[in-house]
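Hey, sorry to bother you again with one of my protein questions. I've been staring at a protein lately and its backbone has me curious. I owe you a coffee for this, so here goes:
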Amino acid sequence: MKTKKQILSRKALHLSLLIPFGVFWWLNLVMLDLAQAQAFMLVVLGAFVIYEYVRLDLRMEVPFGRFIKPKEENTTVDGLNLIMACLLIHLLVPLPVAIAATLIAIIGDAASTMGALYGKIRVFPNTTIKTTWEGVVLSLFVNMTVSASILGFVPAMLVMSISAIMIETAVQKVDDNIAVPILIAGLGSLTQWLSM
């Protein structure tokens, strides 16, 4: 089993994705320069692609290489999938929903992992699913706090918060860094549209 320190280090890297998205939102919402915001995220995405090219195709040592999961040793890292999925939803759904979905995918995922690491009561005992009740509760609290701070106390906030946990638990083969942001953004947008 992986050590808690390795998992926590990997989650710290996962949380560090808040930095480029924070800059993206600042450029877009504060500086009111969507073109500059998009150019910045293209540079970030390009840097991830180059990182993966150097690691996978050139087989060279890369920074943070020791934190890569065994299943990602011969394929792209989850972070690239998360960035691409979150950028996609920024093109397709209202900006507040995209921001909430991105924050849930980044922060809510970390909360779920913390619950799995330190929780004791498994939701599905006698299975390989590591979801714990402590992780569900912590993740739900974080998801609701994040989404309510962006969307307010509206039905979309509740739908996105709960569905993120359900999707994260349900998907085993599909990368949750793709499934969670795309599906909850879609559900959030649909809920907002139905609530009008």
